[in-house]
Write a structure and sequence with these properties.
The protein is an all-alpha fold. It contains seven helices and no strands. It folds into two domains: about 70 residues, no CATH class; about 60 residues. Helix content is about 60%, strand content about 0%.
Length: about 160
């Protein structure tokens, strides 16, 4: 789905006039955000989603995207690039996920056994291990979606 379509769908419930008023912007600008802007004959305007994507492409910094995810009470999980996981056999990938989960449990156990409280630095360690686990699991799911573990075709890399 294109950014203008995402915005159009998102604004549908509340209405363009209401959003424009709350943002202190003209309704015509909001309408232009909801139109395509990626072709020469398009009448749309570069919208905030396009601008955030451009900031990422220019800087390579995922900070603004991660911040946006936190604002939505979520977390950014990076997709593994194709090819990163295709050389990892199924059994090794499964072990990696279990190992990452074990590392998370180790950090949790250490935090609790220390003083019965998880303080902010310990929460940071837990977050770090959780992000590693999510990334490993995403790598696995991505490889499955690419058909890399299709045993019927002999592509299970074992």
């Amino acid at each position: 789905m294109k950014s203008n379509e995402v915005l159009r769908k998102s604004l549908g419930n509340l209405g363009v006039k209401s959003v424009a008023a709350d943002l202190g912007l003209s309704t015509s600008l909001i309408y232009k955000w909801c139109q395509p802007s990626d072709t020469e004959d398009a009448s749309g305007a570069e919208n905030p989603l396009d601008r955030i994507a451009k900031v990422y492409r220019l800087t390579g910094d995922k900070g603004p995207i991660e911040w946006l995810c936190r604002e939505a009470d979520g977390y950014f999980v990076e997709n593994v690039q194709p090819g990163d996981s295709d050389a990892i056999p199924l059994l090794h990938m499964t072990r990696r996920i279990v190992r990452e989960f074990s590392d998370l449990l180790d950090v949790l156990t250490e935090s609790i056994e220390n003083d019965g409280v998880i303080d902010l630095p310990e929460a940071g360690k837990i977050r770090n291990e959780w992000e590693k686990l999510k990334s490993s699991a995403e790598s696995f799911v991505n490889a499955c979606e690419q058909g890399l573990y299709d045993a019927a075709e002999g592509d299970d890399h074992e």
